Amino acid sequence: MQYRGKPWYCSVFVVIACWFISTGAGNPGLKKYQLTGYAQGTTYAVTYYARAEVVSRASIDSILSVIDSSMSLYKPYSLINKVNDADRIIRITDQHFLRVLRRSFEIYRESGGLFDITVAPLVQLWGFGVESRDRLPDSAAVDQVMVCIGMEKIKLRGQRLRKKRSCVELDMNGIAQGYTVDVLADYMEDRGVTRYLVELGGELRVKGPKPDGTPFRIGIERPTQTGGGSTVIDDVVEIQEGAITTAGSYRKFLQDGDRRISHHINPKTGYPFATGIVSATVYSEDAMTADGYDNVIMAMPVADAIAFVNQLKGIEVLIVYKDNRGMVRDTMSTGFKKLIAN
């Protein structure tokens, strides 16, 4: 069994390439500032326009460190690891953790349980967790873990989180990176920055337009027909404000002989999803919402996913999938078509 893909902090991969080039000629009083770094097992890039440097790399790194201390499974001292080690009840005062936990309950209900942050034992069992594995689980191992899965097994009352079973463990990787992007974007606005692009591991949020009056242009990557991990930018979207995230199955997977196993695990069955969807690129007002729902969409048949998104308010999606002949195709929600650049 071979593992493909880096052990990301977040289960979402980088399948978005950002194009944001501007001279600022439309507003000579604004200067362009760019900050880059490494965090959460991936890279980040912050671009903003202001009259003076009001956001530093040190301040960005400090925010990222605080969030890591809250929700990173790769930090032994993090709050989420303390929650997972707790027996039944733990008091939580960390606001980052509480915000993500509350939103996770909402998406859990809205998705009919397809989004579930109690999947940590399953993620580990299938070899996508902190500790590596050299074999796939058998049905007995899956059945044993399933008694610990399900957000109905946790209750939040104020700041008290109660686990109905001590074996319940949380994994917020499917939403935490989007939340981090939102925290960074909100920090920019608190500093008076009103034109920016924040990107972390391919998850991004923008507010524009750029000083020259043009919107941000974002190229969306997809796998080629030949496969092998090669990609091509086929579509470009233009947005003035909002967030775009992508979940995908072609960069992070397990290879077991001829079988490719997705890292997206069904919390209802304990087994990886096999819906045919290669990637789901979601637009929403905020990155946490987009990040949570891109995983939900990966769990649905294509037609059901489009119907689901079309009835949601403020969410749009572009889905890349393989048809029954193995050809790479795409489809999108009604509103996403309006984002495609002409």
What's this, in brief?
By secondary structure, the chain is of the alpha+beta class. The chain is built from eight helices and 17 strands.
Notes on the protein architecture:
- This protein is of the alpha+beta class and 342 residues long.
- 26% of the residues lie in helices and 29% in strands.
- The strands form 4 sheets. An 8-stranded antiparallel β-sheet has the order 3-4-8-9-12-15-16-17, with helices on one face. Strands 1-13-14 form a 3-stranded antiparallel β-sheet, with no helix packed on it.
- The longest helix is centred in the first third of the chain and has 16 residues, at 95-110.
- The termini are far apart.
- Mean pLDDT is 85; it is low at 1-25 and 252-258.
Structural topology:
Elements: E1 2-4, E2 16-19, E3 31-39, E4 42-50, H1 57-71, H2 79-85, E5 89-91, H3 95-110, H4 120-125, H5 139-146, E6 154-157, E7 160-163, H6 176-190, E8 196-200, E9 203-207, E10 216-223, E11 231-239, E12 241-248, E13 253-256, E14 259-262, E15 277-284, H7 287-298, H8 302-310, E16 316-322, E17 328-332
Helix pairs in contact: 1-6, 3-7, 6-7
* DSSP helical segment count: 8
What is the string of SSEs from the N terminus onward?
EEEEHHEHHHEEHEEEEEEEEHHEE
Q: Which regions have little confidence, pLDDT < 50, spanning 5+ residues?
A: 1-25, 252-258
Strand content: 25-35%
Q: Would you tell me the structural class of the helices and strands?
A: alpha+beta
From the spread of the alpha carbons, the general shape counts as globular
The count of DSSP E runs of length 2 or more, i.e. the number of strands, is 17
Largest sheet: 8 strands, antiparallel
- The radius of gyration computed from the alpha-carbon positions, rounded to a whole number of angstroms, is 20 Å
Order of strands across the main sheet: 3-4-8-9-12-15-16-17
Mean pLDDT: 85
Helix residue percentage: 25-40%
Distance between the termini: 44 Å
